Every structure is written in structure tokens, then in C-alpha cells.
Amino acid sequence: MKPWVFLVSALAIKTAFVTIYLVALLSQKGDQPTALQQAFTEWRCSSAEPQGKERGWMCCPKGWKRFQKKCYYISDDTMSWAESVQNCTGMGSHLVVINSKAEQVFVSEEIQQSSRGPNFYIGLSAEKVGQWQWVDRTPFNVSAAPETTLNNWNDVRCEHHYRVCEAAAVTV
Ligand code: CA
């Protein structure tokens, strides 16, 4: 590729990102910005799922991973359970709630790629033995839980662990 072709391409891509950034800024003025939007200034956008009916772009904060319509944050530091809950909330998100096998597979793969661990907090806790509760009040159904297929959930002592936060992607 000739240098100027590369330069023009790079400029075009840069322009696209700047445009998306502006669109995101403008759209914030119309709707009430979400807590996630208020917490971050740098975003990465990609086109919505081509097979779906959704149009436009889906954006996640820089450094977060998008899967379907959600953004995920794999921490590189460790905290207690209570601090992890607060940290995710402070970023306009919550500790990850696993709603499907596909979501669990995605999160598991991201955790493995991060080469951190072995333990990550997810948004499931029990104040009393056996009384499991998701942080977003999603009912916990043992038989529907994907743990039977991947078998990688465990209750751990509430020491310092890594965490995975989840939030809805911002659509522009
Ligand atoms: Ca989820």
C-alpha cells in the first residue's frame, strides 16, 4: 500500500471515530445520559449486529469488551466482595449477571485471555447458605444455571478477588 493511501485510510478511520464521538456527545444532550455515559469520556463503537434489526452503533467505554448488547469490564485489580459491588456501581454498571450459556462462554473466554485469576467475582451472592441472589434481583434458578455445563462457578471466601462488571452498551 502506498503511504498516502494508508494516510487517507487512517484519516478516514480517525474521522469516523471523531464523528461517532460527536454523535455520542450530541445524543447525550437529548436523552438523560446513563450512569455509564457519565462515568466515561472515551468510547469505542462498532456497528450493531448485522443480522439483527438494530441499526447504528453500539458503544462501550475504552477498555471494556462488547458482547451482544452489553459491555464487560475485566478488572486488573482485586477487591473484597463489597468493594467490587461498589466499584462496578460507581462506573454505572453492576457485577456480571449470567443470563445465558452464551454469556457465560463469552465471559469465561475473556477471563482466560486476561491471564488473571483464578477467581473473579460475579454478581451472585448468598447472605444465608443456599439462598443465592443476583445483584440485579434476577431470580436465581439452579436448574437453569449454566454452571452444569461449564462447571466453573464456586462460592469463595469473601477475600480480595478480581471482578467482572456488566452494563448495557450505549446505542447511537
Ligand atoms: Ca448479563
Explain what you see.
The two termini are 33 Å apart. Strands 3, 4, 5, 6 and 9 form a five-stranded mixed β-sheet that branches. The protein has a three-stranded antiparallel β-sheet with strand order 1-2-10, with helices on one face. Strands 7-8 form a two-stranded antiparallel ribbon. Helices cover 35% and strands 22% of the residues. It has a domain at 64-171: Mannose-Binding Protein A, subunit A (Mannose-Binding Protein A, Chain A), CATH 3.10.100.10. The model has no long low-confidence stretch (mean pLDDT 83). It has 172 residues and is of the alpha+beta class. The chain has helices at 3-30, 35-39, 81-90, 101-114, 147-150, and strands spanning 43-47, 57-61, 65-67, 70-74, 94-95, 120-121, 124-126, 132-134, 162-168, 170-171. Bound molecules: calcium ion.
The CATH architecture assignment of the domain at 64-171 turns out to be Roll
- Structural class of the helix and strand makeup? alpha+beta
Molecular shape = elongated
Oligomeric state, counting identical vs distinct chains: single chain
The amount of helix comes to: 25-40%
Q: Element order, helices and strands?
A: HHEEEEHEHEEEHEE
Largest sheet descriptor? 5 strands, mixed
| Unique bound compounds | calcium ion
Number of helices: 5
Q: CATH superfamily assignment of the domain at 64-171? A: Mannose-Binding Protein A, subunit A
